From TrEMBL:
NCBIfam families: dephospho-CoA kinase. It comes from Reticulomyxa filosa. GO terms for biological process: coenzyme A biosynthetic process. SUPFAM superfamilies: P-loop containing nucleoside triphosphate hydrolases. Coiled coil: none annotated. This is Dephospho-CoA kinase. The keyword Transferase applies.
Length: 245
């Protein structure tokens, strides 16, 4: 018996950009469109932080008492409770966002695992199926703040486009302070400085190694209202659809 396989056209787009630049806002606008799926690399990272291997490795690096908290969880069918240790992201964040070396140690553990998960998801979404699917192109977005820092633009062979979202530091800092009220101005500023600056990010994305194969879109979001950003967004989507046609 012959099996017919149907392959839907998928266009894979990475969204990167600094903290507070507007990646999530952009994704919220994308969610209103048809044929769009968005995968968030921060969420993949949060799952990776729950893997026993990761917990063991990070406790060795940073000290169990410094980065974990204990949780009461159901351990069996009869609702018995047990204690388990989980990574406390606030504690870990406070350590790594103020210490470049420690951030590098964390990245060495996390980035390969997150990258592997992104490729697995991409393989799943792009594999042929036995049922006839929609003929329209699926736009598969990966929102990954540190996409360029992690070298995923070069290491993961999945991209059709890379979108770089940018906002000036003062703007980004004000947005972070408004959104994360537990952070001080110094902490917000340290988080921005822990990442690539806009200039380097744009230059990295526009480097021939990647821009010769992948469409690069630089998106400035220094606006004070979502309405102003929406106008820019509409234009970007129109061009994205033309490229996919
Ligand atoms: C440091 C951790 C524990 C903080 O967790 P928390 O829930 O507070 O933040 P969350 O994961 O939601 O990230 C929020 C933002 O912080 C910035 N950020 C996160 N990790 C990093 C990093 N390694 N380098 C620079 N900036 C980072 C990004 O802008 C991200 O969008 C967590 O971010 C982490 O494990 N980071 C390492 C893995 C990683 O790089 N994740 C980001 C994938 S895009
Ligand atoms: N054009 C805009 N007008 C008004 N507010 C905005 C605009 N863009 C973003 N914001 C606000 O700024 C804050 C940060 O934006 P957003 O969460 O989209 O950034 P981000 O790049 O996803 O940041 P992070 O990496 O920290 O998750 C949010 O509260 C958002 O509502």
């Amino acid at each position: 018996m012959t099996h017919i396989e149907y392959k839907r056209k998928v266009r894979t787009i990475g969204i990167c950009g600094g903290i507070g630049s507007g990646k999530t806002t952009l994704c919220e606008l994308l969610r209103n469109l048809k044929n769009v799926e968005i995968i968030n690399a921060d969420s993949i990272g949060h799952h990776v932080l729950k893997e026993p291997k990761t917990i063991t490795k990070l406790c060795e690096l940073f000290g169990e008492q410094n980065i974990t908290t204990t949780n009461e969880v159901k351990v069996n069918e009869s609702e018995e409770l047990g204690i388990t240790k989980v990574i406390d992201r606030v504690k870990l964040g406070n350590i790594v966002f103020s210490d470049k070396k420690k951030m590098e140690q964390l990245n060495q553990v996390m980035w390969p695992r997150i990258g592997d998960e992104m490729v697995s998801i991409w393989k799943e979404k792009t594999k042929p199926s036995q049922t006839k699917e929609e003929e329209s192109t699926l736009f598969l977005f990966f929102e990954a703040a540190v996409l360029l820092e992690a070298q995923w633009h070069l290491q993961l062979n999945i991209w059709d486009e890379l979108w770089v979202v940018c906002a000036d530091k003062v703007k980004a800092c004000a947005r972070i302070l408004k959104r994360n009220s537990h952070l001080s101005a110094e902490q917000a500023s340290a988080r921005i400085d822990a990442q690539m600056d806009n200039e380097k990010r744009i230059a990295t994305a526009q480097d021939k190694k990647i821009s010769s194969k992948v469409h690069i879109e630089v998106i400035w979001n220094n606006f004070d209202t979502i309405k102003e950003f929406q106008d820019v967004f509409n234009d970007i989507i129109e061009k994205m659809q033309k490229r996919a046609a």
